[in-house]
Specification:
- There is one protein chain.
- By secondary structure, this protein is α/β, with parallel strands linked by helices.
- The protein has eleven helices and eleven strands.
- The strands form two sheets. Strands 1, 2, 3, 4, 5, 6, 8, 10 and 11 form a nine-stranded mixed β-sheet that branches. A two-stranded antiparallel ribbon has the order 7-9.
């Protein structure tokens, strides 16, 4: 019986040089595995596609394709282009490995994920231990968002935060290989047969919450999600999105958050989750005002959440759509 094949997909958006560094690291980590690498340029329109294609041809890298998405539909949509393309010979891969363009797997990182899926047939997705340039671990293991997690994240008050710690979305407590609710997509390998069963990334999400939604569908179909500590990947983080320099949270984050709650729990639940967050966040704001403490929350965060979510609620009730048509180029502070 032939060994399972793996297709590595790297999505590029205006980071050609960084993407090529990621590809080089992936090439080394793919050695000995039956598979290919597909680079998808997500409509960069800055010469990225041509630069990457020309570099691949000049270096005579085998087993690497460079594709155009044709439209920047976001993270999930771009990766779906690569998934649907499959292998260059027209076959479908057994495993699909999603790697961020600013992530660099260590030599054994991809093999560790590959081996875990082979030996755990009821595991649908696996993700890596992610660390930064400074060596510190990045949190990439999570619980599913809920009404109580909204309260925990917004209230920021010691006794309540401690009481609700088991509902906190980030899982910093995990120290070894373990089952989790969902994983960040910076380095994640997926069983293709599971995607055939549950579907690909939901392209309604432009950016953020798409991995949580995909993992939720896998968990609903009784597949486990595992964090594999032995698979190690260095991640710069947010190079193409500019997240580290946000002056305020962009529209598409609010849109994705509300869509996640509405899709997975219904409109009433989504509305109540927003009400809880706004109420708890307002109490935190008032407490900081009275005590003189500095709020570590983006300016106008609560106002933006209220605006977007109430528009979505009204749109869902009246049957009208609320579309932001987001673009990563948007000057977030304007």
């Amino acid at each position: 019986m032939p060994a399972p094949t793996v297709l590595t997909i790297i999505l590029n958006y205006k980071t050609a040089d960084m993407t090529l560094r990621s590809v080089q690291a992936a090439r080394i980590a793919m050695q000995g595995l039956p598979g290919e690498i597909t680079i998808v340029d997500n409509d960069s329109q800055d010469g990225s596609f041509e630069n990457i294609r020309d570099h691949v041809e000049a270096e005579r890298w085998e087993g690497i394709r460079v594709l155009r998405s044709g439209h920047n539909g976001g993270y999930g949509a771009g990766n779906n282009v690569g998934i649907r393309a499959g292998m260059s010979d027209g076959t479908a891969p057994d495993f699909i490995y999603i790697l961020n363009s600013d992530a660099f797997p260590e030599p054994e990182a991809i093999t560790e994920l590959y081996n875990f899926l082979q030996t755990h047939p009821k595991t649908g997705f696996v993700g890596s231990y992610i660390f930064g340039e400074d060596g510190d671990r990045h949190t990439t293991t999570f619980r599913f968002p809920s009404i109580l997690s909204e309260l925990e994240s917004a209230i920021r008050f010691g006794p309540i935060t401690k009481l609700l710690k088991s509902y906190r979305v980030p899982r910093e407590d995990i120290v070894g290989t373990a089952s989790v609710d969902w994983l960040a997509g910076a380095s994640m390998m997926m069983r293709r047969s599971v995607l055939d069963e549950i579907g690909l990334f939901d392209e309604t999400f432009f950016l953020y919450f798409e991995e949580a939604d995909l993992c939720a569908r896998a968990r609903t179909s009784n597949y486990s999600i595992h964090y594999v500590y032995e698979s190690r990947v260095m991640h710069l983080g947010s190079v193409s999105t500019g997240m580290k320099t946000w002056d305020r949270v962009p529209d598409y984050w609010f849109e994705s958050r509300f869509h996640y709650f509405q899709k997975n729990y219904g409109l009433t639940y989504a509305g109540f989750a927003t009400l809880v967050h706004l109420s708890a966040g307002s109490l935190h704001w008032l407490r900081c005002k009275l005590t003189g403490k500095t709020r570590d929350v983006s300016p106008n965060f609560l106002r933006s959440m209220a605006k977007h979510d109430f528009a979505n609620i009204i749109g869902s009730i009246t049957g009208t759509t609320h579309n932001q048509s987001p673009e990563l180029d948007t000057k977030i502070g304007e």
